[in-house]
Amino acid sequence: MTRIPARAATVLSLALLLGACASGPQRDATEAPMFTSERSSDHRGSDDLLTAGLGLDGLRAMVPPAFADAAHPTAAELRRRAIWSNWRGIADLAPGGGYGTLYGTTQAVPGREFSALAKIEGANQPHRVLVQVPDAFDTAKRCVVVAPASGSRGVYGAISIAAAWGLPKGCAVAYTDKGAGSDYFDLDARAGVRVDGTAGSPADGDVAFVPDAPAVASGVAFKHAHSKDNPEADWGRHVKQAAQFALHALDEAMPGAAPFTFDNTRVIAVGISNGGGAVLRAAELDGDWLDAVVAGEPNVFVEGGRPIYDFTTEAALLQPCALLHLAPESLAQPPMRAQVEPLWTLRCAALKAAGLVSGDDTAAQARSAYDAMRASGWTDEALRSGAASSGFDLWRSVAATYASAYGRYGVGEHPCGYGFSAQNADFSPRAATAQERAAWWSDAAGIPPGNGVGLVDTKVAAPDFTLPGLQCLRALWDGQGADADRVRKGIAETRASLPRAGLPVIVVHGLDDGLVPPAFSSAPYVAAAQAAGREVRYWQVRNVEHFDAFLGFPDYAARYVPSLPYVYAALDRVDAYLDGKATLPADAVITTVPRGAGKPLEAANLAIPR
Hints:
Blueprint: H1 8-20, E1 35-43, H2 55-60, H3 75-90, E2 111-118, E3 127-134, E4 143-148, H4 159-166, E5 172-176, E6 185-186, E7 192-193, E8 199-200, E9 220-221, H5 223-226, H6 235-253, E10 266-272, H7 274-283, E11 292-296, H8 308-322, H9 337-353, H10 362-375, H11 380-385, H12 387-391, H13 394-406, E12 419-423, E13 429-430, H14 434-443, E14 454-456, H15 467-478, H16 482-492, E15 505-510, H17 522-531, E16 536-541, H18 554-559, H19 564-578, E17 588-590, H20 603-606
Parallel strand pairs: 4-5, 4-10, 10-11, 11-15, 15-16, 16-17
Antiparallel strand pairs: 1-2, 2-3, 3-5, 6-9, 7-8, 12-13, 12-14
C-alpha cells in the first residue's frame, strides 16, 4: 500500500520549532488594553440583546431579516441580521430539536451593548470586542461570561453559546472575533466594514480591517487570512482583552457600582470549536483573572496531538476516496451520495496516479485511502460525520485560509496561489456588487466560499481539478522549502500549554466529531492536563458531531444529538462549583440515544449527567 508520505520529517521539524517556544508565544497578556472606536446602544422593547427582537420564530425563519435598501442597510438592520445568521449557523433551532423546551432559551433580554476595536501588543490589525449588559445585571453576584467566536465567525459568533446561558442569569456577556471575523475588504472598490457594520471607505475612518495590499490588488481580503498576524497564536490574549473590555463597559453602564475588577467580578470563559481552543489558550495565561473555563469540541493543538492543518490537508486529499469504502447507508445526507460519488471516484484514480494510494480499481483504492486515514488516527465515526466537509469542499477552504494565516502572508502572496473574489457562474473572478458587499459583515462566516465570495484556485487542472492545489497545501506541512518552514513555524506558535493550576476546566467533545476529531485535539490536551494534576474534567459524548446546525437536516437529526445541551450543563456545573454548592463533575463517556427519523428529541436521548 502506498500512502501519504510519512510524517517523521515533519514531526522532527515541528518538534525543533516547538522546543524553541515550548510555552507557546503568548505572553502574560498584562499589557494595558488598547480600545478604540467605542460605541454603545440600547436594546429594549421590540429589540433585545439575545435575539434582536426576532424571538424563536424569527430565528427559525428560512430567509434573513430584510434590508429596506439592499445596498445601504442601516447598522440596526445589520445587527439584527448578524444575530439571526450566527444563531442559525451554530444552534439547532428546528422544531422537534429541543431548543427552548429541553435546553436553551430565546427569551427577550433588554439591556445595552458596548463595542470597540481592541489591539494586542505587536499586532498589525485589531480584533472586535463587544459586551452585552442586561438591565437585570446582578450586582450582588457580579458575573461576566466571555466568549470568543466559533470558527472564524464575526463578533456575534458565540451568541447562542454564551448569551443564551449568561444573559438570563443576570451576567454580562463579552465577545471577541479573536482576530478573524467577517470584516471583509473589497480590494476593487477599496471599501471595508465600519465598526457599526456598514460598508465604508478607509478614508472615512472607523474601518475595522484595512489590509496591507498593493494598490493594483483585486478581489476580497479578510482578516483571518490576510492580517499577517497569525491570530490563532494569540487567541488567549484576545479572550482576556474581551474580559477587560467587559469590566470597562460595566464601569460605564453602572458607575454607582464601579469599579468592576477581576477581584470582585466572576469571569467564566466558554467557547466551541475554534472558540473552545481560544478559551483553553486563555486558561494558560498567568494571573487570577479567570475563574472557570468550559470548552466544547475545541480546536486545540498540544504535543501528542495533531494540529488542524495536518489533519485538514490529509482529509482534503484522502477522505473523498476513503468514504467510498464505507457503506452508503452509514453516511448522513447531505451530501447526496449520487451527486458526489463520481467526484470521489475521480479522486481515487487521481490519488493512484499520484502514488498516494494503491489498487487497480476504485474499491481497492478506496480501501487504501481508508486504511491510511485509520492508521493516522481517524475513527469510523469521525470519517462518517466528516463526509459533509468533503462533500461541501470545506477542507480546501479551511486549508487555504489557514496556510495564509500561519505563514503570515498578505494579499496576493499565498504560497499555493489561492485568492478570494466574487465570481461568475463559471467561477471566474469579478468585482463584487454593492449589495453583496453590504451583507458581508452580517451574513459571512469568516472564511469563503459563501455570501458572494468564492475561493480562487489558480492551480486547477484536469482530471481532478482541485487536486494540484491540495497537494501544494499538503506539502506546506510535510514538504521542504522556505514556504513549508514558514507555515510550520506559524503552526508551532499555536501550540497550547497547560491551564493555570487550580483553574476549573470542563472539556466537552462529541465522539463523532469529524471536523475536529477528539483523538487529535481534546483527548491529548486532557491527558496532559490531568497528568500534571490540573483541575480538568472531560465529557465525551457519543452520537455528537461538530455542527448542531446540521441537525436541521432530517437525516442528521435522526442519527445525532446536539452538543449545546452539554455545554450549557457544563456551565451550570462550574457555576455551582464556584458558588460552593457542588463539586466538579466526574469524567464521563455519555451514552446518548439518537431519536431516529421523524421523532422529537427528548431528555432521555441526551442522558445529561446529573
